[in-house]
From TrEMBL:
PANTHER family documented for this protein: 52 KDA REPRESSOR OF THE INHIBITOR OF THE PROTEIN KINASE, 52 KDA REPRESSOR OF THE INHIBITOR OF THE PROTEIN KINASE-LIKE PROTEIN-RELATED
UniProt protein name: 52 kDa repressor of the inhibitor of the protein kinase
Length: 239
């Protein structure tokens, strides 16, 4: 999050480097540096094409990304996803300082519902030390960990927090992913995109990491046959 904030504060230098790379790529495909036709309605004011793309694309994109990151990883929500740190595989990798930081975050949010809040600090460190001594981490669900390890006598507070973790709703469902993906793809700069192309790009964006290896050369050649404009073979294949 801080990286995007730093880029946004130094947008001029960052965009200068990015725009230089874009110009080099545009030369490979024979594309000229230009901006959309001005219609005096909702057009971003800019004297040059470079200034236009910075104001119309780069700055809004960084603002949207920063805003969504702040919303998703806010201080309020941190106490929810930090519950995942109680899972044995995670807490066994934390040192004393990290466990102390985890303690402060969890106490601030969940202390009022803990059965024994005064003993939570010592209990959390006992839970951490218990898993640090184990050679193998259990490959179990949260409910199984509660039943097998987090009993109500030795770890009553940990057990209560694991209950909350077990019933937390999933924050990124398939429908939600599709809406976020559509927001990134179908911007006002791409308002003329056809439905078929938008659907195909959405599938690739959402499931690209799970798709089998694609024959990129074959795809590029098929694209050149369908759209033989300025896309030439040397520009696509870097020859």
């Amino acid at each position: 999050m801080n990286s995007y904030t730093d880029i946004r504060s130094g947008i001029d230098k960052w965009f200068e480097r990015l725009y230089t790379k874009v110009l080099r790529l545009s030369e490979l495909v024979g594309s000229a540096e230009e901006r959309p036709r001005v219609n005096h309605r909702g057009t971003t004011p800019a004297e040059t094409a470079k200034e236009y793309w910075k104001r119309a694309v780069a700055i809004p994109f960084l603002d949207i990304v920063s805003s969504e990151l702040k919303s998703r990883f806010s201080h309020e929500k941190r106490a929810h996803y930090e519950l995942c740190a109680l899972v044995p595989e995670v807490i066994s990798k934390k040192d004393e300082n990290a466990v102390t930081s985890l303690l402060n975050v969890l106490k601030e949010k969940w202390e009022h519902i803990l059965p024994l809040p005064a003993a939570f600090e010592s209990e959390l460190f006992r839970w951490s030390n218990h898993w640090n001594r184990q050679e193998a981490m259990p490959d179990e669900s949260v409910t199984s960990i509660m039943a097998s390890h987090a009993d109500g006598i030795f770890f009553p507070n940990i057990r209560e927090l694991l209950k909350i973790l077990a019933v937390l709703p999933i924050g990124s469902t398939e429908a939600e992913r599709s809406f976020f993906c559509l927001r990134r793809l179908h911007t006002w700069l791409r308002s003329t995109m056809t439905t078929d192309r938008l659907s195909d790009l959405s599938v690739i964006a959402m499931h690209g990491n799970t798709m089998v290896a694609l024959e990129t050369d074959r795809i590029c050649r098929a694209f050149m046959e369908l759209h033989p404009r300025r896309m030439t073979e040397p520009s696509l294949f870097g020859q």
